[in-house]
Amino acid sequence: MPALSTIIWVAIGLLVGYVLWKSGIGMLRSMTTPMPEPPPAGEMRKINVKYRCTVCGLEIRLTLAPDEDPPPPKHCLEEMTLIAPIE
Fold first, then answer.
1. 71: which residues sit within 8 A by CB, 6+ positions away?
2. 77 — alpha (psi -120 to 50), left (phi > 0) or beta?
3. Domain that residue 74 falls in
4. Which of 78, 18, 80, 9 is nearest to 49 (CA)?
5. Is 25 part of a structural domain of the chain?
């Protein structure tokens, strides 16, 4: 019986080694993949709106968005309020 348990432990060790090897190779490959290309210039629209966080008072100005009326960003886990579109 000791020989059978040795074989099982060796098999488990080889399996764990194989899983670690494959996950390490996968992580290295994910770090070497190139960054995706930026979107075409026509997809982003120029806008000019200002938002304020009602919790902490942070103000942010949005200048580019995928559409002309973007949803308000979130800060402090709350949606920011629109101050005024800047003209």
1. 79
2. left
3. 45-85
4. 80
5. yes
pTM greater than the 0.85 cutoff: no
Helix (H) or strand (E) holding 18: helix 2-32
- In angstroms, rounded to a whole number, what is the distance separating the alpha carbons of residues 11 and 66? 53
Q: Which of 35, 36, 19 is nearest to 27 (CA)?
A: 19
- How many domains is the chain partitioned into structurally? 2
Measured CA to CA, the distance from residue 41 to residue 30 in angstroms comes to: 27
Q: Is residue 40 part of a domain?
A: no
Task: Give me the average pLDDT of each 10-residue run along the chain (87 residues).
Answer: 85 97 94 78 80 91 83 89 76
Name which of 68, 26, 17 is nearest 45 in CA terms. 68
Backbone φ, ψ for residue 10 (5° rounding): -65, -40
Domain assignment present for 60: yes
